[in-house]
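Researcher: Here's the sequence for the chain we discussed earlier.
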Amino acid sequence: MGLFLKKIIHLDADCFYASVEMLKNPALRNVPLAVGGESNRRGVIATCNYIARGFGVRSAMASAQARKICPELVIIPPKFEDYKSYSRQIMDIYREFTDRIEPLSLDEAYLDVSDSTFFAGSATLIAKEIRRKVHEETGLCVSAGVAPLKFLAKIASDWRKPDGLFVINPDEVESFIAELPVKLLPGVGPVTADNLSRFGIYSVKDLNVYGEDWLIRKFGKFGTQLFRMASGQDEREVKTTRERKSISVETTFSRDITSKTELAAKLQDLILELKRRYEKLPSKDPVYKRFVKLKFNDFSRTSVESTMEKPVLWQENNSVDEEYCKEHDVRPSDMPATDKVWADGVQIGGAASAKSATENILPSNMAHVKKASESNVSSMQQPSVQDREHEIFLDASESTGIFMEDSELFNIDAYEKLLAEALTRSQKPVRLLGVGFRFIKTEDSWDQLAFKLD
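Model: Thanks. This is the structure I predict for it:
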């Protein structure tokens, strides 16, 4: 453990959307309440109050399922303008104490108060005052975690929810981390926790027994991250600006769609909306990938992505939205999922399945890539956990171009090809369709792109 010089506060409003609704309508305070879409319109729960959570209702749960386990659940549609208004009030209070703020969402942020002169520089007293002011001025409760490291500050803010404050002092870091359940580490979801438990690893103290080399062999790059967290290392700064990495639009249909013609028509509408949204961006970074995503009536998902003529496909069944994973600090690969397939020839479940995946995914005009992938099947080894949890590019280094002209971004033929590829992954009816593209910065080289998905 090193010398800790930072003072980081992580602040997170308790069940934010639901809390705003209860403020506006006090009659909702003593009933199980959720904000989201209605069950008869294929809705999903965005958040819920603690009464509803007592019944087992959770974020990202289908509203129909939530109603089954909690028949008295009151579900109201989100009113984002109201939430943005409260968010602005909260962020204005944060700015009274420091300008080093990293917003993570409307209701969550990191604050670096290392150089603050308020309360003689005491991060604990600053956090107490922020919580008091937020409640006094907005009526909302925010939980706070104080620590010298970002990942510990986030863990601490959850420690005494709701309406809590938990502090990890620098001299407590080593002992706190040692006894910490490994499942609470950022990025360790149910799948990774289960993999670790097979080796008798349940706490960070258990993790340290194996060492960095073993963790890297078993978990690849994420093994290094695990070791660094277990060793109390986190040099990440509080970022005052956040880069947009992608833009997308999606729609959930009021009924399942099985007709490819009908889906193609819906696709065109989404591309027009994507174009309108893109044109409103204040700055436009170069684009290197376009994608189409589908969610089927059994909630399985398939995404198809392409870089010019070099497609990268990723299928993940029974998964949850990426936004949910970011909100809860877990990776999509750590959520319950099956049937992941990449088009780069990585073997999942044996050489035969890898070959089959290549045959099913690659378009006919990529015969040279298909042949190269097949030739490698026999020599491939079972991938590490890290390989299985990240997308990899096909022949990325051989690409002749990275950036697309605006006219290429909204090429209907290109998106229709991606949609056609996605539909080969499942014959189930479609309930959600989405389109979008991903950005890179102009200083990024092509060789770096394959690692930007980590």
